[in-house]
Specification:
- This is Nitroreductase-like protein.
- It holds the Pfam family Nitroreductase.
- There is one protein chain.
- By secondary structure, the chain is α+β, with helices and mostly antiparallel strands.
- The protein has a single domain, classed as NADH Oxidase.
- The chain contains seven helices and five strands.
- It starts with 10 loop residues before the first helix and ends in a 23-residue tail after the last strand.
- The relative contact order is 0.20.
C-alpha cells in the first residue's frame, strides 16, 4: 500500500504516523520488559488522563497489572474456560488443543491492561442532554477504544508487542472480586503485552480507493 511522500510541517507528525504503522497484533510474548515499570505506568496514566470523551464525561477506567498480578487474569480465564468444559459448553478437545495454549501464552507475557467503562458516570449527563441519552453509552465505548489504541501504540513504540483480547463477561465477576473494583466498572477489553519473541502475521489491506475519498483538495 504505497503513498506519495509528503513533507510535514512538524517532524513529530511523521514519528506519530510511523508509530501507528508499527502497531500490530503480536501473540508471541515473554515476561520481560524493555523499559521500567514507571515508563509503563506513565503511558497508561497519560492515556487515561488525556484521551477525549464526549462532553468530557471521562468514563474510562483502567487497571494496569504487571508480573504476578498480570498472571492472575489469565488464571481466572483458564478457570472460567475449564468451567465451560465441565458444563459441556466447550468441547474438551477444543479447549486442550486451542483455548488452553492460547490463554497460557497470554499468561506468559509481562502485563495486562484492563479497560473498563463506568456507565454510572453518565447518569447526570444523560438527564441533562436527554435527547442524546441513547448515544452516550456508545460514545463511552468509543472513548475507551481510543484509550486502548493509544496505550497499545505507545507500548509498541517502547519496544513491546501486544494483543487485545475480549473475555467478558466470562471473567468479569472474578476480576472485580480479585482487585476489589467498583461494580459500576464494566470490563471491555484486555491488552496483553510483553517483549516480543515473534513478529506479527501478514496484514492485507483492502484497496484504499474503496475506503477513502477526498474533495476540495488543492492541486
Amino acid at each position: 500500500m504505497g503513498s506519495t511522500a509528503v513533507e510535514f510541517k512538524n517532524p513529530a507528525t511523521a514519528t506519530l504516523l510511523d508509530a501507528v504503522k508499527a502497531r500490530r497484533t503480536i501473540y508471541g510474548l515473554k515476561a520481560e520488559s524493555p523499559v521500567s515499570d514507571d515508563v509503563i505506568e506513565s503511558i497508561v496514566k497519560d492515556s487515561v488522563l488525556h484521551v477525549p470523551s464526549s462532553f468530557n464525561s471521562q468514563t474510562s477506567r483502567v487497571v494496569l497489572l504487571l508480573k504476578e498480578e498480570h498472571e492472575k487474569v489469565w488464571n481466572i480465564a483458564l478457570q472460567a474456560m475449564e468451567g465451560l468444559v465441565a458444563a459441556g459448553a466447550l468441547p474438551k478437545e477444543a479447549y486442550e488443543s486451542s483455548t488452553k495454549p492460547k490463554l497460557e501464552a497470554f499468561r506468559a507475557a509481562y502485563g495486562t491492561v484492563l479497560f473498563f467503562v463506568d456507565y454510572d458516570a453518565l447518569k447526570d449527563i444523560k438527564e441533562k442532554f436527554a435527547i442524546y441519552a441513547d448515544k452516550f453509552d456508545p460514545f463511552a465505548l468509543e472513548s475507551n477504544a481510543m484509550s486502548q489504541y493509544l496505550v497499545w501504540t505507545a507500548l509498541t513504540s517502547e519496544g513491546f508487542g501486544a494483543n487485545l483480547q475480549h473475555y467478558s463477561p466470562l471473567i468479569d465477576a472474578q476480576i472485580q472480586s480479585q482487585w476489589n473494583l467498583p461494580a459500576s466498572w464494566k470490563l471491555d477489553a484486555q491488552l496483553v503485552f510483553g517483549t516480543p519473541v515473534s513478529g506479527p502475521g501478514e496484514k492485507a489491506f483492502a484497496p484504499i480507493e474503496d475506503r477513502f475519498k477526498v474533495f476540495g483538495k488543492s492541486a
